[in-house]
């Protein structure tokens, strides 16, 4: 009896796989595989082995080396690959845990804010207080998107330095448009950007533009990341909530702790993003791999002859494949198939917070859905 295919449902609908694998992993050579990274070195070492076998067979008497040299080199190669892959996966796992910490902080801050946003003595909230609460819930979700885009080296919103500049009078006018001081920032996902002709730059991502407060300008061109800028708004809301009597001292302090944990986790993710593996290790690893796979044909040519070619190709495929996995896991915040599913994880958190907010707004004081916030 065939089991029905489970359709993705909330919660965690976006961060789970949406469809079963059509092919066994052993037969996959495209999505998620690292073959495109290693095909060139495997091909070059195979061709080099062809040359060695040809010279050994038709030109010189013997090019063979003692086979005892291989175990000595293989120990070094194994140790270096274990270190590289272990370090890379640790960066991947740490980045995933940091993203969980950030999502948990957003959940806690949203929950506490909505549960305690109540008027004094049973009075209803004013429209200003409702707007303030709703704004800060949207800012909490926007922080997730801002962190994602900053880790991917993408712009977020227009810099404040452009706010005072008038728009071009004509697309054919002589006035030059301002140029960002961070031209290396580019959007790798064109569908997520909107081109703002007023300022002539790529601005906020369409996926979370509506979450940002009206008129908010950024300071990324001056070195201030949008995530930290948004946390200042959250800190201000905590202070206002304390003054309104929504949060008592210990609760406000705990909310600040949650906000600090969010900033700390983001800082650790920035450390992973901005601290690559030391170049000395990368150089030596590449050289050791090349040396081993270049010496290997000489050590086996006398025993295997033309069979040395597929043997070397398999060894090169294995070793360079392990090294290629480390390369992909080194920076886990991008768009690769093997990177952290930041898009799906953030969308799931957005869905959770959005549902909480909509239920809170249903009656203005969160008494919908069986008194969720009572």
Automatic annotation (TrEMBL):
It holds the Pfam family Bestrophin_2. Residues 171-183 have a biased composition (Low complexity). GO terms for cellular component: membrane. Residues 166-198 are annotated as: Disordered. It comes from the Eukaryota. It is found in: Membrane. GO terms for molecular function: chloride channel activity. Signal peptide: none annotated. It is a multi-pass membrane protein. Keywords: Ion transport, Membrane, Transmembrane, Transmembrane helix, Transport. The chain crosses the membrane at residues 32-55, 61-83. This is Uncharacterized protein. It comes from Trematosphaeria pertusa.
């Amino acid at each position: 009896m065939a089991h029905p295919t489970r359709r993705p449902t909330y919660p965690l609908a976006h961060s789970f796989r949406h469809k079963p694998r059509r092919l066994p992993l052993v037969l996959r050579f495209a999505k998620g595989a690292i073959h495109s990274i290693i095909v060139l070195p495997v091909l070059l070492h195979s061709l080099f082995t062809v040359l060695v076998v040809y010279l050994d067979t038709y030109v010189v008497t013997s090019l063979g080396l003692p086979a005892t040299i291989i175990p000595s080199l293989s120990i070094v190669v194994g140790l270096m690959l274990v270190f590289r892959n272990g370090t890379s996966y640790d960066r991947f796992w740490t980045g995933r845990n940091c993203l969980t910490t950030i999502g948990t902080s957003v959940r806690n801050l949203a929950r506490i804010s909505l549960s305690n946003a109540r008027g004094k003595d049973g009075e209803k909230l004013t429209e200003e207080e409702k707007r303030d609460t709703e704004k800060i819930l949207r800012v909490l979700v926007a922080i997730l998107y801002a962190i994602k885009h900053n880790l991917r080296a993408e712009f977020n919103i227009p810099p404040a330095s452009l706010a005072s500049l008038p728009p071009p009078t004509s697309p054919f006018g002589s006035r030059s448009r301002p140029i960002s001081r961070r031209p290396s920032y580019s959007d790798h996902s064109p569908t997520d950007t909107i081109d703002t002709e007023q300022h002539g730059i790529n601005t906020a991502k369409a996926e979370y533009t509506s979450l940002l407060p009206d008129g908010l300008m950024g300071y990324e061109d001056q070195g201030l990341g949008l995530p930290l800028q948004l946390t200042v708004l959250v800190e201000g809301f905590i202070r206002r909530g304390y003054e309104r009597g929504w949060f008592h001292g210990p609760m406000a302090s705990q909310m600040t702790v949650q906000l600090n944990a969010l900033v700390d986790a983001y800082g650790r993710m920035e450390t992973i993003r901005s601290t690559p593996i030391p170049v000395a290790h990368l150089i030596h690893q590449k050289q050791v791999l090349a040396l081993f796979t270049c010496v290997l044909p000489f050590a086996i040519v006398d025993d295997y002859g033309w069979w040395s070619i597929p043997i070397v190709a398999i060894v090169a495929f294995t070793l360079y494949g392990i090294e290629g996995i480390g390369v992909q896991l080194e920076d886990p915040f991008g768009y690769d198939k093997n990177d952290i599913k930041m898009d799906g994880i953030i969308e799931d958190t957005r869905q959770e917070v959005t549902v909480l907010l909509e239920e809170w707004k249903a009656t203005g004081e969160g008494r919908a859905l069986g008194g969720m916030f009572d």
